[in-house]
Amino acid sequence: MAIIRIIAACLFITLCHAQNDTLRFKYEEFDDKLSVQLFTLNTSNSFSLHYGAENLTVDVEPNKKTTLGISVQYDIVFISLGFAPSFFADNKDNANSKMVSFALDVFPGRFVQHFDYYYQRGISLKSDNVNLYLENLKTMKIGGSTAFVFNRQFSYRAIALQNGKQTISAGTFAPTLSYYYTELNGKSQEGFGDKDHFVDVALSPTYYYNWVIAKNFMVSAGLGVGAGITLSDESSPRALYQASAIIGLGYNAERFFAGINSKGLASSHNASEDVAMDDSISYATAFVGYRFDAPKFLVKGKEKIKERIK
Q1: One of this protein's Pfam families, by short name (predicted)?
Q2: Which of 11, 13, 73, 288 could form a cystine bridge with 258, CB 3.0-4.6 A?
Q3: pLDDT, tens only, 47-56
Q4: Fold of 2-309
């Protein structure tokens, strides 16, 4: 019932906003620019296993978390690539640990298509007074989400200050379907075991709001709560509960932009009759960027694609 109330409330707010969209809400997009962004990112895919019979919780945490990265956006395509150098404080003294992340966003019309890839090697198991580092334990997550933005005058790209700028405050309801494949691989870790993997699929009613607090300054926020199913070889399909949140603050001029952004995705399901698993992706970044005039080969390529579509 709570989820139904959230959906109804989001729809009501969106419809109220939509009545004045044409007159009030505006945004600007920079599809003719090539945006280049440098960032530092603290991210990880962590797990918690709750054993009911033993009244025990084991946290599964990767040892490399802070990455440096670069992202590039032109028109509707946004690509980000990061790596975790050892000179960051929380990346040191982690034998053979590794963290690689990759993200891709595409914005066809009012759809938002997001892809994620996380690879982590070197995991710590933490419980009460125990902290065990397993250098050959690996995790891998691949997947993404598809969202539909109801409000035509809301700029999803402006949330992360990509090739979009919200000029007047606006919000939108954006139902989101997420789907992830996750693998815990202990084959190379002595005494740990084989691979465990599962697939999560969830539908979340989500609401975003871009609040323009001053010229070129904006605060963004979003919240989603949903449910779905988890599939694995170890058990029959099980219920999945999911929540997501995002908040950001930034400066966004025509050429230069900078800001901070934090978001998270948390899900929970029963891994077996007596074991519950929490799976979370945390993400916090600080970034600076600049929009360049797009090189001629990109402009010509874009024009050729448009001609073929016609």
Answers
A1: DUF4421
A2: 288
A3: 888 887 777 8
A4: Lipocalin (2.40.128)
